[in-house]
Every structure is written in C-alpha cells, then in structure tokens.
Amino acid sequence: MARTFLIQDGGVVINRSSGGPVMVSGAEKARQDVANMLGTEFTPDDIGASLDTIVGSVPQSPAQVRQLIRARVTRAFNTLLSLQKRFNRRSRSSVETFSRLANVTASTTASDPTAYVFRVDVTTVAGGTISFGGRLN
Fold it and tell me: Helix or strand or coil: residue 93?
C-alpha cells in the first residue's frame, strides 16, 4: 500500500509525540490525491485542474463557467488516471487506485451568484467512492 505525508492547509502535519510526519494511505491518501489534483495549477503535462483561476478571470456566463469546471476536472483526472496506470501499480491498493470519474457537478450558489460550488466523485477499483467538493469565488 502506498503512503504519503498528510497535508493540511498546505503543510505537512507533524505528529506531536514522535516529531515525525503523519502518514496516510488507502482511502485517505486517494482523497488527498484528488484534492491535490484539483488544487494544482495547470502544468504542461495537464496534471492540475487549476480551478482557482476560473472565476473572475474573464467575463463568462454561469453555463460557461460550469462547463469549464467540468472540462478542467475531467482533463486533470484523465491525466492522473494515466499516471496511476503507468507508475507504482504494485504498491497501490485497489482502495486508492482510481477506475473512473463518476460525477462532476458545478452550480452557482443561491446567496452569491458570482460564486460556484462543485463536487467531484471518483470511483476506485475496490468499488468505493472518493468525493471532494469546494467553493470557488
């Protein structure tokens, strides 16, 4: 099973008693991988979704923004899926190996029509679902 550092608020979480980093694996690692993919800026190899640059960057209709959110998430997820298939397949459990992008939704909020909420559901090879959502404004 693959492991990685637990990241919260942009930093590595340190275990206060041992002084070492807190490690995560399984479903928690998979959820963190999805969150990292969504929060990463575009790279030349399409790794990040760069969602933070969508709202307010250029004048767009709500329908265009929703479509752009779905397109960027789909592209970044497909790249992540491709990378998972190519690297470290033996060290990754079925709980943290993605099989497909099950759902991407985006909508404006009732309280602020210039803000958007989104939700991403990813299915794992083990049959579980990793969900992640957020607000863009």
Answer: coil
Retrieve residue 117's tokens: 């909420």
Residue 133's contacts (CB-CB under 8 Å, 6 or more residues apart) are: 117, 118, 119, 120
How many alpha carbons fall within 13 Å on the CB side of residue 65?
25
| Predicted local confidence at residue 106, as pLDDT | 93
Closest to 27 (Cα-Cα) out of 124, 106, 114:
124
124/117 Cα distance (integer angstroms): 23
Overall pTM surpassing 0.85 (yes/no): no
Tokens of 101: 């992008």
| Maximum C-alpha span of the chain | 51
What lies within 8 Å, CB to CB, of 38 at 6+ separation is: 48, 49, 51, 73, 76, 120, 132, 134
Whole-angstrom Cα distance, residue 67 to residue 13? Answer: 35
What is the token pair recorded at 100?
Answer: 């497909």
Lowest mean pLDDT, pick from 14-18, 55-59, 87-91, 107-111: 55-59
